[in-house]
Structure formats: structure tokens, C-alpha cells
Amino acid sequence: QFLALGTHYGKVYLLDVQGNITQKFDVSPVKINQISLDESGEHVGVCSEDGKVQVFGLYSAEEFHETFDCPIKIVAVHPHFVRSHFKQFVTGGKKLLLYERGWMNRWKPSVLHEGEGNIRNVKWRGHLIAWANNMGVKILDMISKQRITNVPRDDISLRPDMYPCSLCWKDNLTLIIGWGNSVKICSVKERHASEMRDLPNRYVEIVFQFDTEFYISGLAPLCDQLVILSYVKEISEKTEVECCARPRLDIVQPLPESCEEISSDALTVRGFQENECRDYHLEYSEGESLFYIISPRDVVVAKERDQDDHIDWLLEKKKYEEALMAAEISQKTIKKHKILDIGLAYINHLVEKGEYDLAARKCQKILGKNTELWEFEVYKFKEIGQLKAISRYLPRRDPVLKPLIYEMVLHEFLESDYEGFATLIKEWPGDLYNNTIIVQAVVDHLKKDPQNRTLLQTLAELYTYDQRYGRALEIYLTLRHKDVFQLIHKHNLFSSIRDKIVLLMDFDSE
């Protein structure tokens, strides 16, 4: 796996996937126009602005040199050049020439096309060669040596040297064309025998065609979608003059006459303010979803986002709930993220926004049975004065937290909300906290407010749980509370009320 990179100074560098230079070739003193590799990666074709063409083996002595009297813009070696019977390559300036090695290892050129201006791009796949000139895109069938289509250029007002045509083969029969702001996806099909007559046995059908918002610098297939490198111009807010913006890498879903944008990323490359559409190129590593964006000063490697990348993006946008859902759905495939860490970040985010009740509610699902984390979160809520918010969601069974946690919450209510305190005493099992400590706290508060019915009734309930039925009975009788009858009956306290029969008869037992 390597990347072949040509420079404006006539050098070709081979880089590994980390960007380290492994080999260097001095090809020409002027700009390298195009580089072509066969599928094996063993043979390289290079052409330059001074008319030089070289085809050579990286691991063999095989080499071809030719110099033309005009700049050579394109070169493409046969995809299977490594095999002896496929020693072919095409090159183009004003003509598209096919070179074939024949008898005595001599190279024989033949003209495939001429007369429509400079050849601007070429891509060879299987038995099909596609090339672009000033007029449009052609496809040649190398088996029949017949040209099977001509796809005209849409916007002839754009200079083809400034807004070059982008070509790529999705597979052996599908060509993708990007030119200006137009995209065409072409399918090569077999013609029925009854339709042939004097026509080629293959023809091309445009199956998708749409325009983009910006000019196209490169494109590549991604499953049934397209990756498009876009050249962007915008109006400067300061000068109100059109200027070059950062290029964009867009993923789109082709539709019959339009496209749906799936994602869009602005790329930061050095010197983008001075770059033109022709200064960017997009290459891709087939089967690996690796995309190389080449600019005059940078090579940017982009890869298809996995679920971890998607979660990163959601977290960056502070979409914590969506990130949590994505992690839960993909928990078997994500490698970088942990559901618990995302959940804790979500709780912190809600707390920072002041959504205390929602944060407390999410604790139930996120913290689960982790008592250590539960206790940590309770103390955090205490620090911000929001113990009441989390009280409703504290676990009461499986797991059970330390008694101190529940006592801390009860004390918080006892200091500011007698009704809330009474509700918790009713709802919480009495074994969650130290009953003696809470009883004493209530007694202390009753010293300040001895007639408070809410506190007295709650104290009676605490005494009942502690099996101090006599004291509970005294409070109910003092309050003339109807629960006294249930207490007497449930705990068989008839012997304790012999001297209180008259008082009980005055109660409204209903």
C-alpha cells in the first residue's frame, strides 16, 4: 500500500500510508501532470508538462521513455500491465495514443482519437477506456476497438483547463463523470443482437444525472453513494468580493434527477485561499474506504466514519442523548467509547444546563446498580443544593446505598420541607436509614415547633416502624388521628387503651 505523488518540480514520491517517503524519482524539471498505477502496484506511468512519458517497473528493469513536442496531460497503464499480454498504455496531449508492446519488445503507437482539443483525463478499467477532451467524454471498448459513446460537456462556458473533468470507474461497467457542477453516472450495457446492424455491440445509458451546489474537483464511489470533493467560492463579509473558501468533502446519495446530501465536511488545507478548482484531486483506495484529498501543499486522508466517529460527532455537538442511544445500539462494535462514560457526560451536561430533575431521572438508567457511582452523584447533587431533585430516583431495593445517603437526603427535607420529608418517610422502607438518628432529628425540630402536625404524624410513623407502639399511640391520640384504630388493631394494643375508651369514642372513626 503506497501513494504515488507528483510535484510541480518534476519529482515523483512514493509514500507509505503514514506519509513517509519510501522512494523518489527525478522524472522531469517541470510539472508532473498525471501518474497511473496498474492494479498490482508494480508498474507506474508518468507524464509531464515538457512532453515526457515514462512507464517503468518498481520491482523490475522494465522501462519505456518517450518525449513529445507538446505537453502530455494524461497517461494510463493497462490495469493488468504486469501480465505479459497486457503491455499497453495510453497517453494524451492533442491526441489519444495507444502504445502496445509487440514483436522484439518494440512499442507500437496508434491513434485512438484526435481533433477535439487536448485530452484532459483518462481512466482505464477492464476492457474499457474513458477519456475527456474539450468536447466531452468518450468510452472505447478495447475488445472491439470501437468507441461506444460520447457524453457532451454540459457547461461549455467553463474553461476545461480551469474546471477539469473528473472520471472514475465504480466497477467494470459503471463510469462516474463530474464536470463543472454536473454529475453523470453512466452504465455500459450490451446491445441486443437484433439492434446491432452497424452499431457497436455495447452502448451507454445515463442512469443518474444531477447538478451540485459547487464545482467538482474530484469524485469517488462509496457503496451506492458518492464522495464528492467540491471547490467552493463564497462572498467575503469584509470585502463583499467572491473568494475561495475551504474545499468540501460531501457524501451524497444519487437519485434519478437529483441527490440527497448525507454529510458534508469543510477541509482545512494550507493555502486554500489561493487554490483553484484544478488544484484539488481526489483519489481513493478501493475496498478500504480510504480517500486521499490532494492539494498543492497538503495531502489529507479521509476514511469512512464508523460508529465511534459518529458518536464523537454527536458528543462534539452536545447531542448526548443521541450519542447514548447510538452507543447502546452499537455496543458490540464500538471500540473507543463506553456507554457508561457517555451516560455520565450526559448527566453532567444536564446538570450544567440546570435540568436537575431530568439529570436525576437519567441516573436510574445510566448508573444502574453501581452503588459507588450513585453515591458519587448524590454528593455532587448535594454540592449544588439539589438533593431534593435526586431524592425521588434513589434506589430503594437492589441496590441499596449506604444509610448515610438516605439520612442526608432526609435531613435536607427536614430543614426546608416538612411535607416532602413526610412523603419520603411514607414511601421509603424504614431499613434504608438509621431510624434512631431520624427520630432524634424530628424530636429536635419539634422542640422549635411542638404543635406541627406533619412532624408529629411523621414521628408516629417512625415510632411504629421502630415498634415503639406506645409512643406512636400517644401521638395519634393527641392528634385525634383516625390512623389510631388501624394501629390498635394491627398491633393488638387493646390493653393499652382501657383508660382511653371515652376519648376514642369521640373520634370520627370514618
UniProtKB/TrEMBL annotation:
Listed GO biological process terms: cellular response to starvation; endosomal vesicle fusion; macroautophagy; protein targeting to vacuole
Parts of the chain that traverse the membrane: none
SUPFAM superfamilies: WD40 repeat-like
CC terms in the record's Gene Ontology section: HOPS complex; late endosome
Domain Vps41 beta-propeller: 1-304
Name of a matching Pfam family: TPR_Vps41
InterPro entries (UniProt xref): Beta-prop_Vps41 (IPR057780), Vps41/Vps8 (IPR045111), WD40/YVTN_repeat-like_dom_sf (IPR015943), WD40_repeat_dom_sf (IPR036322)
PANTHER family: VACUOLAR PROTEIN SORTING VPS41, VACUOLAR PROTEIN SORTING-ASSOCIATED PROTEIN 41 HOMOLOG
Protein name: VPS41 protein
Annotated gene: Vps41
